[in-house]
Amino acid sequence: MKIAIFPGDGIGPEVTAQALRVLETLSLPGLTLFEGDVGAAAYRRHGHPLPEETLEMARAADAILFGAVGDFACDDLPRALRPEQAILGLRSELGLFANLRPAAGFPGLEHLSSLKPEVARSIDLLVVRELNGDVYFGDKGERMSAGGREGWDAMSYNEAEVRRIAHTAFRAAMGRGKRLTSVDKANVLETSRIWRETVIAVSGEYPEVELEHMYVDNAAMQLVKSPGQFDTVVTGNLFGDILSDQASACVGSIGLLASASLGERQTDYGTFGLYEPIHGSAPDIAGQGKANPVAAVLSLAMLLRHSLGREEDAARIERAVEAILADRVFGGDLGGTASTEDIGDAIVRKMV
Amino acid sequence: MKIAIFPGDGIGPEVTAQALRVLETLSLPGLTLFEGDVGAAAYRRHGHPLPEETLEMARAADAILFGAVGDFACDDLPRALRPEQAILGLRSELGLFANLRPAAGFPGLEHLSSLKPEVARSIDLLVVRELNGDVYFGDKGERMSAGGREGWDAMSYNEAEVRRIAHTAFRAAMGRGKRLTSVDKANVLETSRIWRETVIAVSGEYPEVELEHMYVDNAAMQLVKSPGQFDTVVTGNLFGDILSDQASACVGSIGLLASASLGERQTDYGTFGLYEPIHGSAPDIAGQGKANPVAAVLSLAMLLRHSLGREEDAARIERAVEAILADRVFGGDLGGTASTEDIGDAIVRKMV
Ligand SMILES: CC(C)[C@H](C(=O)O)[C@@H](O)C(=O)O
Ligand SMILES: CC(C)[C@H](C(=O)O)[C@@H](O)C(=O)O
């Protein structure tokens, strides 16, 4: 079993360090860890946010534990050299097309949400976001027009692309509440028309799942008004970027939320994937012991579940996290005083 | 002074009727009203959701009061014939490039929001959405690809398009809190790169306005977490569609929210524009007297202010609406029992 560890920038390294401590407590047989450079850290050392050797390491692994990328110092670099390219490049080079972002409140932490406690408590949804297509990876550029310089980006989805993410979403819905909301803008976009028609075609294979379609503007509205109505949500790369962040904000504690990005490749133990916290690199608080490592630890749990077939270990980690939250081991983001390391300590203690 | 009245579908006609009663109380000298067909109603009568004669009427007017369009019965029509094309067609044919959507809570109605009352109360923002460009009006179509049928849409913005909406937004910010948040996805999109560079260039002319840039995913998050941080928000057509609906949902009472869509053309009295409630046609409750006409009445107030230069009358209408809300004249959407007509009656009584 090989895990590539890409800590990245800002608070990435410190939260990843705590996840690795938790991983150690499992004493997994035959586990090998590689550490690679990504983001601004990689740019400084190798002149590129996603160096070839990092990509090689990723390809050789069964799973990737990713911290975070991003640094104010890179704001003026051309886009191709900015830290975000590391995560975009990994997603496309490795064919990680399915981003799973569960958003559910932690009991007792509803007060952290800006939503009313009863509304926050009702949230228990999974956003399945397509990660390899859409306007993210289409042709793009600048050209001259009658109105001066013009920036353009090509948006598209084809049936094969939609089909595979739809299958992922329907299967996920089968393991949850059997309700799937497909979000698009089919009243305006041809990309969305193909999206919707293909999702409907795939739905025939999942008669038990109740499928509904929602325009993205209405979805953004409903996610605020009554987020409890959603079970599984499937959508394209751009709308998924927006709605999954919105859903995380509804929960209120983004320092606790993890995500998985899965590809098609099967390893000896499960599905190849990359796992990362929802939160960013937060360079303003880096190195101060203020970061919450829970999202990184829960990303590790997702990694064990999806890529290494170790459901038991994943569940143990999740129980340990629940236990320390019940004990109110809170960092500053949750209104407490525990440091990044204190929180790691507490989780490690619960693992024995 | 000529106002074109386009009541449209569903609850559109009944809420527009109440706005017209309020307009009558003003006894404006030299006012002419025309009524035209749009949406499903127009499709049934003329075979098109935006008939040529409606467009002619719009062109001849100083302002348009629009109800709502949309009807379940049209779901299976080809997109070009669906009711939404009426509003999309009016926006592009008439050059209505600036959509102004104020979102602010009404004192005493914070409980309607799913946000905590103190968070809901903090909302007082204006979304300035570009309406004539972006992926809405670019080339689009279907083609064959290696992955089967592929839907595609071209997204773009040029400097001239961004410049004019930026000026609208900076001017609006000058009349408000002098803070402007420009929302884009410049870490991924070339369209957004031109957007951001152009907004920065225009900002030089408004040294008093504090400008910040925010990625759309972060904006969707911040709009839930702390919507009170926003004063004026400017963004493209697609992101504006999503974020303005999200902001309306944060306020909690979309039956109360109005919008203006302005063009470049100056009339004898102000700026040519179209005014409509935020809410849709709600065909499920049409004709039952359940619709809240306040958004339509407040759209009329915006029309008087922006297109007819009648600030006094606009303010009078807004005060009348505040007064009936203070009197708790509430329809079902606000937890009361007043009918559409009862609410219209109450507003009319406050106008004398
Ligand atoms: C960093 C950025 C390019 C990225 C995205 O838009 O996908 C991020 O927002 C995310 O959601 O992982
Ligand atoms: C009906 C639809 C095409 C329209 C849009 O997306 O612009 C609507 O959602 C709006 O915001 O006015």
TrEMBL record, chains A, B:
Residues 2-347 form the Isopropylmalate dehydrogenase-like domain. It is found in: Cytoplasm. It catalyses: (2R,3S)-3-isopropylmalate + NAD(+) = 4-methyl-2-oxopentanoate + CO2 + NADH. It comes from the Bacteria. Mg(2+) binds at D217, D241, D245. NAD(+) binds at G280, S281, A282, P283, D284, I285, A286, G287, Q288, G289, K290, A291, N292. SMART domains: Iso_dh (SM01329). Binds 1 Mg(2+) or Mn(2+) ion per subunit. The record marks Y136, K185 as: Important for catalysis. Its main location: cytoplasm. It is an enzyme of class 1 (oxidoreductase). Keywords: Amino-acid biosynthesis, Branched-chain amino acid biosynthesis, Cytoplasm, Leucine biosynthesis, Magnesium, Manganese, Metal-binding, NAD, Oxidoreductase. Its cofactor is Mg(2+); Mn(2+). Its EC number is 1.1.1.85. It holds the Pfam family Iso_dh. GO terms for molecular function: 3-isopropylmalate dehydrogenase activity. Catalyzes the oxidation of 3-carboxy-2-hydroxy-4-methylpentanoate (3-isopropylmalate) to 3-carboxy-4-methyl-2-oxopentanoate. The product decarboxylates to 4-methyl-2 oxopentanoate. Homodimer. Belongs to the isocitrate and isopropylmalate dehydrogenases family. LeuB type 1 subfamily. This is 3-isopropylmalate dehydrogenase. It comes from Qipengyuania mesophila. The gene is leuB.
